[in-house]
Specification:
244 residues; mainly alpha; 11 helices; repeat; prenyltransferase; CAAX-protein geranylgeranyltransferase activity; transferase
Length: 244
Protein backbone atom coordinates (compact mmCIF):
# COMPACT_ATOMS: atom_id res chain seq x y z
CA UNK A 1 0.00 0.00 0.00
CA UNK A 2 2.87 2.38 0.74
CA UNK A 3 4.32 1.91 -2.76
CA UNK A 4 1.04 2.59 -4.54
CA UNK A 5 0.45 5.57 -2.27
CA UNK A 6 3.76 7.11 -3.34
CA UNK A 7 2.96 6.44 -7.00
CA UNK A 8 -0.49 7.99 -6.78
CA UNK A 9 0.76 11.11 -5.03
CA UNK A 10 3.13 11.61 -7.96
CA UNK A 11 0.64 10.55 -10.65
CA UNK A 12 -3.02 10.20 -9.59
CA UNK A 13 -4.08 8.86 -13.00
CA UNK A 14 -2.44 5.46 -12.49
CA UNK A 15 -5.55 3.28 -12.57
CA UNK A 16 -3.50 0.14 -11.95
CA UNK A 17 -2.38 1.56 -8.61
CA UNK A 18 -5.95 2.47 -7.63
CA UNK A 19 -7.20 -1.00 -8.58
CA UNK A 20 -4.40 -2.60 -6.60
CA UNK A 21 -5.51 -0.70 -3.51
CA UNK A 22 -9.11 -1.78 -4.10
CA UNK A 23 -8.06 -5.43 -4.10
CA UNK A 24 -6.26 -5.00 -0.78
CA UNK A 25 -9.22 -3.22 0.82
CA UNK A 26 -11.63 -5.92 -0.38
CA UNK A 27 -9.69 -8.71 1.34
CA UNK A 28 -10.97 -7.64 4.76
CA UNK A 29 -13.07 -4.65 5.74
CA UNK A 30 -11.06 -2.39 8.03
CA UNK A 31 -12.55 0.99 8.86
CA UNK A 32 -9.13 2.35 9.83
CA UNK A 33 -7.80 1.57 6.36
CA UNK A 34 -10.94 3.05 4.85
CA UNK A 35 -10.36 6.33 6.68
CA UNK A 36 -6.73 6.34 5.54
CA UNK A 37 -7.94 5.86 1.97
CA UNK A 38 -10.29 8.83 2.25
CA UNK A 39 -7.44 10.93 3.64
CA UNK A 40 -5.24 9.93 0.71
CA UNK A 41 -7.94 10.97 -1.74
CA UNK A 42 -8.41 14.28 0.07
CA UNK A 43 -4.65 14.89 -0.07
CA UNK A 44 -4.51 14.31 -3.82
CA UNK A 45 -7.60 16.44 -4.44
CA UNK A 46 -6.02 19.30 -2.50
CA UNK A 47 -3.54 19.85 -5.35
CA UNK A 48 -5.37 18.07 -8.18
CA UNK A 49 -9.05 18.94 -7.59
CA UNK A 50 -10.25 17.86 -11.04
CA UNK A 51 -8.66 14.42 -11.11
CA UNK A 52 -11.44 12.05 -12.17
CA UNK A 53 -9.62 8.88 -11.07
CA UNK A 54 -9.38 10.15 -7.50
CA UNK A 55 -13.02 11.20 -7.35
CA UNK A 56 -14.08 7.83 -8.74
CA UNK A 57 -11.99 5.93 -6.20
CA UNK A 58 -13.38 8.05 -3.38
CA UNK A 59 -16.93 7.14 -4.39
CA UNK A 60 -15.95 3.47 -4.44
CA UNK A 61 -14.60 3.77 -0.89
CA UNK A 62 -17.79 5.47 0.27
CA UNK A 63 -19.84 2.63 -1.22
CA UNK A 64 -17.84 0.18 0.87
CA UNK A 65 -18.64 2.20 3.98
CA UNK A 66 -22.34 2.32 3.07
CA UNK A 67 -22.45 -1.48 2.78
CA UNK A 68 -21.19 -1.90 6.35
CA UNK A 69 -22.75 1.11 8.10
CA UNK A 70 -26.39 2.12 8.09
CA UNK A 71 -25.89 5.68 9.30
CA UNK A 72 -24.03 7.77 6.71
CA UNK A 73 -25.17 11.14 8.08
CA UNK A 74 -21.87 12.31 9.55
CA UNK A 75 -19.80 11.06 6.64
CA UNK A 76 -22.08 12.70 4.07
CA UNK A 77 -21.81 15.98 5.98
CA UNK A 78 -18.01 15.83 5.88
CA UNK A 79 -18.05 15.01 2.18
CA UNK A 80 -20.28 17.98 1.45
CA UNK A 81 -17.93 20.29 3.34
CA UNK A 82 -14.95 18.88 1.44
CA UNK A 83 -16.60 19.53 -1.92
CA UNK A 84 -17.51 23.07 -0.89
CA UNK A 85 -13.92 23.83 0.09
CA UNK A 86 -12.61 22.40 -3.18
CA UNK A 87 -15.22 24.34 -5.18
CA UNK A 88 -14.05 27.56 -3.53
CA UNK A 89 -10.49 26.95 -4.73
CA UNK A 90 -11.33 25.39 -8.09
CA UNK A 91 -14.00 27.22 -10.06
CA UNK A 92 -16.29 25.43 -12.51
CA UNK A 93 -15.20 22.08 -11.07
CA UNK A 94 -18.06 19.90 -12.32
CA UNK A 95 -16.30 16.74 -11.10
CA UNK A 96 -16.48 17.96 -7.51
CA UNK A 97 -20.12 19.01 -7.84
CA UNK A 98 -21.02 15.73 -9.53
CA UNK A 99 -19.57 13.98 -6.49
CA UNK A 100 -21.82 16.12 -4.31
CA UNK A 101 -24.83 15.15 -6.44
CA UNK A 102 -23.83 11.51 -6.06
CA UNK A 103 -24.11 11.90 -2.28
CA UNK A 104 -27.78 12.98 -2.38
CA UNK A 105 -29.31 9.45 -2.21
CA UNK A 106 -27.40 8.92 1.04
CA UNK A 107 -28.78 12.11 2.59
CA UNK A 108 -31.66 12.32 5.02
CA UNK A 109 -34.61 14.61 4.36
CA UNK A 110 -33.17 17.16 6.80
CA UNK A 111 -29.78 17.10 5.08
CA UNK A 112 -31.37 17.69 1.68
CA UNK A 113 -33.20 20.74 3.04
CA UNK A 114 -30.03 22.00 4.75
CA UNK A 115 -28.00 21.58 1.56
CA UNK A 116 -30.62 23.48 -0.39
CA UNK A 117 -30.43 26.32 2.11
CA UNK A 118 -26.62 26.39 2.25
CA UNK A 119 -26.20 26.40 -1.51
CA UNK A 120 -28.42 29.48 -1.91
CA UNK A 121 -25.80 31.93 -0.71
CA UNK A 122 -23.03 30.18 -2.63
CA UNK A 123 -25.04 30.40 -5.86
CA UNK A 124 -25.64 34.11 -5.36
CA UNK A 125 -21.91 34.72 -4.95
CA UNK A 126 -20.96 32.46 -7.90
CA UNK A 127 -23.84 33.04 -10.27
CA UNK A 128 -21.77 32.15 -13.35
CA UNK A 129 -20.88 28.72 -11.95
CA UNK A 130 -23.49 26.42 -13.47
CA UNK A 131 -22.54 23.44 -11.32
CA UNK A 132 -24.24 24.68 -8.17
CA UNK A 133 -27.52 25.27 -10.01
CA UNK A 134 -27.48 21.69 -11.26
CA UNK A 135 -26.81 20.57 -7.70
CA UNK A 136 -29.86 22.50 -6.51
CA UNK A 137 -31.93 20.88 -9.25
CA UNK A 138 -30.85 17.45 -8.02
CA UNK A 139 -31.78 18.40 -4.46
CA UNK A 140 -35.24 19.59 -5.51
CA UNK A 141 -35.85 16.41 -7.49
CA UNK A 142 -34.72 14.38 -4.48
CA UNK A 143 -37.42 16.10 -2.44
CA UNK A 144 -39.98 14.75 -4.90
CA UNK A 145 -38.61 11.24 -4.41
CA UNK A 146 -38.91 11.64 -0.65
CA UNK A 147 -42.43 13.02 -0.97
CA UNK A 148 -43.55 10.02 -3.00
CA UNK A 149 -41.94 7.51 -0.65
CA UNK A 150 -43.31 8.94 2.60
CA UNK A 151 -47.03 8.27 2.56
CA UNK A 152 -47.69 8.83 6.27
CA UNK A 153 -47.35 12.62 6.21
CA UNK A 154 -47.72 13.02 2.47
CA UNK A 155 -50.20 15.89 2.70
CA UNK A 156 -47.97 18.12 4.84
CA UNK A 157 -44.91 17.12 2.83
CA UNK A 158 -46.66 17.98 -0.45
CA UNK A 159 -47.47 21.41 0.92
CA UNK A 160 -43.89 21.99 2.07
CA UNK A 161 -42.49 20.78 -1.25
CA UNK A 162 -44.81 23.09 -3.16
CA UNK A 163 -43.67 26.08 -1.09
CA UNK A 164 -40.01 25.20 -1.65
CA UNK A 165 -40.43 24.99 -5.41
CA UNK A 166 -42.43 28.21 -5.48
CA UNK A 167 -39.72 29.97 -3.46
CA UNK A 168 -37.15 28.64 -5.94
CA UNK A 169 -39.06 30.34 -8.74
CA UNK A 170 -39.03 33.66 -6.91
CA UNK A 171 -35.35 33.33 -6.11
CA UNK A 172 -34.52 32.57 -9.75
CA UNK A 173 -36.49 35.62 -10.87
CA UNK A 174 -34.46 37.75 -8.46
CA UNK A 175 -31.18 36.42 -9.87
CA UNK A 176 -32.26 37.06 -13.45
CA UNK A 177 -33.27 40.63 -12.65
CA UNK A 178 -30.06 41.22 -10.71
CA UNK A 179 -27.78 39.77 -13.41
CA UNK A 180 -29.43 40.84 -16.64
CA UNK A 181 -27.36 39.91 -19.67
CA UNK A 182 -25.47 37.16 -17.84
CA UNK A 183 -25.74 33.50 -18.84
CA UNK A 184 -27.25 31.99 -15.72
CA UNK A 185 -28.07 28.31 -15.83
CA UNK A 186 -31.50 28.36 -14.23
CA UNK A 187 -33.35 25.12 -14.63
CA UNK A 188 -36.95 26.24 -14.10
CA UNK A 189 -39.24 25.04 -16.89
CA UNK A 190 -42.92 24.82 -17.73
CA UNK A 191 -43.03 21.35 -16.20
CA UNK A 192 -42.23 22.81 -12.78
CA UNK A 193 -45.19 25.15 -13.09
CA UNK A 194 -47.35 22.17 -14.02
CA UNK A 195 -46.22 20.30 -10.93
CA UNK A 196 -46.82 23.31 -8.69
CA UNK A 197 -50.33 23.73 -10.05
CA UNK A 198 -51.07 20.06 -9.47
CA UNK A 199 -49.80 20.24 -5.89
CA UNK A 200 -51.98 23.30 -5.32
CA UNK A 201 -55.17 21.60 -6.48
CA UNK A 202 -57.75 21.10 -3.69
CA UNK A 203 -58.29 17.55 -2.51
CA UNK A 204 -61.31 15.65 -3.76
CA UNK A 205 -63.02 12.43 -2.74
CA UNK A 206 -61.76 10.58 -5.82
CA UNK A 207 -58.12 11.61 -5.12
CA UNK A 208 -57.72 12.79 -8.71
CA UNK A 209 -55.55 15.74 -7.65
CA UNK A 210 -53.18 13.42 -5.77
CA UNK A 211 -52.85 11.12 -8.78
CA UNK A 212 -52.25 14.11 -11.07
CA UNK A 213 -49.55 15.43 -8.74
CA UNK A 214 -47.79 12.07 -8.65
CA UNK A 215 -47.91 11.72 -12.43
CA UNK A 216 -46.49 15.20 -12.97
CA UNK A 217 -43.74 14.49 -10.42
CA UNK A 218 -42.86 11.24 -12.21
CA UNK A 219 -42.78 13.16 -15.49
CA UNK A 220 -40.20 15.59 -14.12
CA UNK A 221 -38.13 12.71 -12.74
CA UNK A 222 -38.21 11.10 -16.17
CA UNK A 223 -36.99 14.32 -17.79
CA UNK A 224 -34.11 14.59 -15.31
CA UNK A 225 -32.97 11.03 -16.01
CA UNK A 226 -33.26 11.56 -19.77
CA UNK A 227 -30.69 14.36 -19.65
CA UNK A 228 -27.37 12.95 -20.86
CA UNK A 229 -25.07 15.84 -19.93
CA UNK A 230 -26.23 17.49 -16.68
CA UNK A 231 -23.39 20.01 -16.60
CA UNK A 232 -23.76 21.44 -20.11
CA UNK A 233 -23.37 25.20 -20.53
CA UNK A 234 -26.62 26.67 -21.92
CA UNK A 235 -26.63 28.88 -24.98
CA UNK A 236 -28.61 31.65 -23.32
CA UNK A 237 -30.43 32.59 -20.16
CA UNK A 238 -33.17 30.09 -19.37
CA UNK A 239 -36.74 31.29 -19.65
CA UNK A 240 -38.48 31.35 -16.29
CA UNK A 241 -42.23 30.90 -15.99
CA UNK A 242 -43.34 32.44 -12.72
CA UNK A 243 -46.14 31.22 -10.54
CA UNK A 244 -48.87 33.68 -9.82
Amino acid sequence: MSHTKALLILCPDLLTAWNSRKMVLLEKYDFTKIKDELQLCALILSYSPKNESTWSHRRWVLKQVAEHHQDMTELVEKESVLVKEIAERSKMNYRAWRHRCWLIPYMTRKQVLDELKKSTRWSELHVADNCCFHYRRSLLLALLDVRLENREDSLSWESETYLLWKEELRWNEMLIRRHQGREVDLFITQEICLLSECLNEPADEFEESRVQAELSALYILWISKAATTPFTQPASIATVYLLE
